[in-house]
Specification:
By secondary structure, this protein is α/β, with parallel strands linked by helices. It contains 20 helices and 11 strands. The structure holds 6-O-phosphono-beta-D-fructofuranose.
């Protein structure tokens, strides 16, 4: 049997189903089925997924579920939780779900973070640490950044946090300018401990400490902590073993926020909140593992996305959190979805030419996004499925703001679907544009854990159906190799444009 999904009878039936329903009115579905909203919604403890405002009928849903069974999704779920080598191109497991299982040992980060929170972790000159700079990139940055921002209201009041990722000197310059070397702790997070940008930022931070703290006071021991899967690399870098915290190599970078990579979060919010975050993810894990496919939210979400990407040829997807706490969620999901499923070689090593994989994911918080790119969502030539995310209970006391915010969210999904007739063509809205809505009870550590785990599992289900590995990222390597060559002034084999641009930059900088 071929692993190419387009060769399956299930896929072919979906192609026919698409042809049969493509001119259906989504609004019409509601008119003929008063229970549609209930029928096309799923919920678990504090999280509701409504996919009723899509062009999916009961038959379409059943056919999509048949496709999931064809791809053996229940086996794939089992394999993930059993720790089998689901990352087959790297011969590794993907153990992120183990990090939120009940018996996980958090004592090392708990002890360290409690010490810092209590003001007992001292810098080289004896002053308590009160500013934590988290240095990392990609998966070693985006998860902690997202969660930090989301839970900001409950941060430790006398600790400050900065996140430093970019190789651009402006990033580190801005952060160091507002930092006091004597009370700053750098947490260097890198799974590989070889990421050039991260190590360059760490080196500049180290030089800055040495330049600004007088005397040989074993500065690194007081101001540097490394978090990595490769302890020996951090030791080679110059950290002492006592200042290195490890995590399992079988945890992939963009799935690693649950590991010691979340140390900064544990310091910012305390161990109880961090445990709540893991419990939320664990609740989603249990749902994903145990719910039948037709009630399984990550699975249904993946199928809705596959319907949009593969059968409707929608090329992008908008993530629209109507929650300021989730401001960083679109950029987090850009990596999770596009680094995971932006692939064109399948698990059998064959070039994929008969179907599409990850759409382009973008987004912004509502209501800002409404006044930025919603024009295109409503009237552009591209159809962009929209994913609205909102929370019922706010984390503030300004009730009127929250009501207005959620009203806007509801209005936008309604407007996308219903459209508007007008005698003037420019004022006409075609409507029939699909959207889904995720409604959380509240944005707290627990529900945030649930939400992130939901997307992790959704991405995994899609990858299984697409017959690709969502846990590798070889596509980022080539640019890194070329950057290294250019930094060594090696432009052999470079094209005319790159060589000329390099020359212009060097000439203007006065470098021979
Ligand atoms: O961008 C490529 C990548 O390997 C990501 O997958 C990863 O999250 C990031 O770089 C950082 O890697 P590391 O944690 O090893 O520094």
């Amino acid at each position: 049997m071929s692993n190419n999904p387009t060769q399956s009878a299930q896929w072919k039936e979906l192609v026919l189903q698409h042809a049969a329903t493509q001119s259906d009115s989504i609004e019409g579905y509601f008119k003929s089925d008063h229970k549609r909203a209930e029928r096309f919604s799923l919920s678990i403890d504090g999280l509701l997924y409504d996919f009723s405002k899509t062009q999916i009928t009961e038959k379409t849903r059943d056919l999509l579920l048949n496709l999931a069974h064809w791809a053996n999704i229940p086996n794939a779920i089992d394999a993930l939780f059993k720790g089998e080598e689901v990352n087959s191109t790297e011969n590794k497991a993907a153990l992120h779900t183990k990090l939120r299982s009940e018996n996980v040992d958090l004592s090392e980060i708990e002890t360290l973070s409690e010490k810092i929170r209590a003001g007992q972790f001292l810098g080289a000159t004896g002053k308590p640490i009160n500013h934590i700079i988290h240095i990392g990139l990609g998966g070693s940055d985006l998860g902690p950044r997202l969660v930090y921002d989301a839970l900001l209201e409950i941060k430790h009041p006398s600790l400050d946090f900065s996140f430093l990722s970019n190789a651009d000197g402006t990033d580190i310059n801005r952060i160091l300018k507002k930092s006091d070397p004597e009370t700053t702790l750098f947490i260097i997070v890198s799974k590989s401990f070889t990421t050039h940008e991260t190590l360059m930022n760490a080196k500049t931070a180290q030089d800055w400490l040495h330049a600004n703290i007088q005397g040989d006071k074993n500065i690194l021991a007081h101001h540097f902590i490394g978090v990595t899967a490769y302890k020996e690399k951090a030791i080679d870098y110059g950290l002492s073993a006592a200042n290195i915290i490890t995590f399992d190599d079988n945890v992939n970078g963009r799935f690693s926020v649950w590991s010691t990579v979340g140390l900064s979060l544990c310091i910012a919010f305390g161990i109880k909140e961090f445990k709540d975050f893991l419990s939320g993810a664990s609740a989603m894990d249990m749902h994903f593992k145990n719910a039948p496919l037709d009630k399984n939210i990550p699975c249904l979400m993946a199928l809705v996305d596959i319907w949009h990407r593969n059968f409707n040829d929608y090329r992008s997807k908008a993530i629209l959190p109507y929650a300021e706490e989730l401001k960083k969620f679109p950029s987090y999901l850009r990596q999770l979805e596009m680094e995971s499923n932006g692939k064109s070689i399948d698990l059998d090593g064959q070039h994929i030419h008969s179907y599409q994989t990850s759409p382009i994911v973008f987004g912004e918080v509502g209501t800002n996004s409404q006044h930025s790119f919603f024009q295109l969502l409503h009237q552009g030539t591209n159809r962009v499925p929209c994913e609205f995310i909102g929370a019922i209970t706010p984390n503030h006391e300004y009730a009127a703001h929250h009501i207005a915010l959620l009203n806007n969210m509801l209005a936008q999904s309604q407007a996308l679907m219903q459209g508007k007739e007008s005698a003037e063509p420019h004022r006409r809205f075609a409507g029939n544009r699909p959207s889904t809505t995720l409604l959380l009870n509240k944005i707290d550590a627990f529900h945030l854990g649930m939400l992130i785990a939901l997307y992790e599992h959704k991405v995994y289900v899609q990858s299984v159906i697409w017959n690709i590995n969502c846990f590798d990222q070889f596509g980022v390597e080539l640019g890194k190799e070329m950057a290294l060559k250019i930094s060594q002034q090696d432009l052999a084999g470079a094209d005319g444009s790159t060589t000329r641009l390099h020359r212009i930059i060097k000439d203007k900088q006065g470098i021979k």
